[in-house]
Specification:
The protein has 16 helices and 14 strands. With about 500 residues, the chain is of the alpha/beta class. Helix 5 packs parallel to helix 8, helix 8 runs antiparallel to helix 9 and helix 9 runs antiparallel to helix 13. It starts with a strand and ends in a 6-residue tail after the last helix.
Length: about 500
């Protein structure tokens, strides 16, 4: 790594350092530095630019060296490309000892330096990090194809659901401003070697996560990104993008847990409960994506099923029934003390199905176990149950947030109350949200006796013990042959 410093003999305390990770951008760099200089001079703001040349193969290094004669520029050169994360890490370590504020940006036309005064004002107002956000309510992205816009919006929605950052809409923006004192605390806490491990596009999220652990106040300002006259870089597949960000989040949580093991008492217990609740984001994101895709894929089937139910028997198309869902009071004493006076074992909710039985309101209120040869089932209902088409409306339960795709099957309140007194540890299956399918559903058969339920409870507790996103995916794939071969139980 080569470093060429600008000719600066002294640096003021209110210096703003601008970190520019670049690669093969010799034509954009002069334009950006000229505009950046005009804006800083108009503000009478002392500034310093750190250009990190990440293994460029064009004339970027030569152009940067020439610009260092006219502007307060330090050029740091990587002999080979190491990725934007490593370039960002190099630039930040170069900037932190020098300045009170650090700004990171890319040398493209969409990161307009005209936003810098607004970002500095937000820092002066007491915020610690300012993000120039495309997904801010006043932010704009134009010149992007419809397919790419939809995929980016979906990926952003998933990312917002799995990250513990509240109020942050744009996790991938490279245009950010930081209070140096905050970044230095993060470096001191995690160590230089572990401050920034991500080598590529998810590095900004890693910084945000670790800064949040230090109580950082984060705000966003709107960014206008116009790609009409700019060739967009090839995008990664959505699943790869989510996977990379998911890995950053898992690594952050693991490192935070390790740091907190030295803490003690109620604070540690509260942090662990918070970590457990936040880990739900991964499962929730996976369920949302699968439910959305499932609704789109099965919409024609659901329309035909609804028509068949309506034309062949009297009564409504859909059947709603009260079930018992997740029991959040188990995990938090404060909730136990201030929520429902009656302990139902979990949160009641309405589950939705296509109606498969003859319409009889009084009979529908009876809470009994289902069986394969139930005489109340209609002819169309038998077909729907055989192929599990009657369960399709529960995809909307997933969107409503009362269920996940994978989890223990929810039970009716009366039956739940009976089983919790007859089967040990029955309540423990309520630690996680109920699901459309689950380990017990793809392994066991219909419940007809208490012994059947006891076996399924054991399977549910096995799932709770080893629960992970990978485990959810395995169960989803195992559900396909179970449905096609008409095995298992729902």
């Amino acid at each position: 790594m080569k470093v060429a410093h600008a000719n600066t003999t002294s640096l003021p305390e209110d210096l703003v350092s601008v970190v520019l990770p670049i690669r093969n951008q010799s034509t954009e760099l002069p334009r950006l530095l000229r505009k950046l200089g005009r804006i800083m001079d108009a503000r009478t703001q002392a500034y310093h630019i750190i250009v990190v040349d990440d293994g460029s193969t064009d004339q970027t290094a030569r152009v940067a060296a020439e610009l260092a004669r006219r502007f307060p520029v330090t050029v740091v050169s990587h002999t080979k490309g190491m990725g934007v994360g490593k370039a960002l890490r190099t630039g930040l370590f170069e900037a932190l000892p020098l300045s009170g504020t650090v700004i990171t940006m890319d040398p493209d036309k969409n990161h307009d330096p005209v936003l810098i005064p607004r970002m500095l004002e937000e820092l002066e107002n007491g915020n610690d990090i300012v993000i120039a956000s495309r997904f801010n309510r006043r932010g704009i992205e134009s010149g992007m194809g419809k397919r790419r816009r939809v995929l980016r919006g979906l990926a952003n929605g998933v990312l917002r659901s799995i990250t513990p950052l509240r109020g942050v809409r744009d996790h991938t923006s490279g245009f950010q401003a930081y209070r140096s004192e905050l970044l230095q605390r993060v470096v001191d806490k995690y160590g230089k070697d572990k401050f920034l491990l991500e080598g590529d596009f998810a590095s900004r999220l890693e910084i945000l996560l670790k800064a949040t652990s230090e109580g950082a106040k984060i705000v966003e300002v709107p960014l206008v990104a116009a790609y009409d006259h700019q060739k967009l870089p090839a995008s990664n597949p959505m699943w790869l993008t989510i996977r990379r960000y998911g890995e950053v989040i898992r690594r952050y949580r693991r490192s935070r847990t390790n740091l907190e093991t030295h803490a003690a008492g109620d604070n540690l217990a509260l942090d662990r409960r918070t970590t457990v609740r936040r880990s739900e984001g991964f499962h929730r994101a996976l369920s949302l994506v699968v439910a959305f895709l499932g609704i789109v894929a099965t919409a024609p089937v659901m329309a035909l099923v609804g028509l068949a139910v309506k034309l062949t028997s009297r009564g409504p198309v859909f059947f709603a029934q009260t079930r018992i869902g997740i029991d959040r009071r188990r995990a938090d004493k404060r909730i136990r003390e201030c929520r429902r006076s009656k302990d139902l074992g979990g949160r009641p909710f309405q589950i939705y199905k296509f109606r498969t039985m003859k319409h009889c309101p009084d009979a529908e209120r009876q809470q009994v176990w289902a069986s394969p040869d139930d005489p109340r089932v209609t002819a169309v209902g038998r077909v729907l149950r055989k192929f599990r088409f009657d369960e399709l409306p529960q995809l909307f339960n997933v969107l409503f947030g009362t269920m996940n795709i994978v989890g223990p099957r929810p039970e009716q309140p009366k039956i739940f109350g009976e089983l919790r007194t007859q089967i040990g540890r029955y309540d423990e299956r309520q630690q996680v949200p109920p699901g459309i399918t689950g380990w017990a559903q793809v392994t066991a058969s219909y419940d007809q006796t208490v012994d059947d339920v006891r076996r399924k409870v054991e399977l549910d507790l096995e799932y709770v013990a080893r629960r992970s996103v990978v485990e959810d995916l395995k169960i989803m794939f195992r559900t396909i042959p179970v449905v096609l071969l008409q095995r298992g139980a729902w």
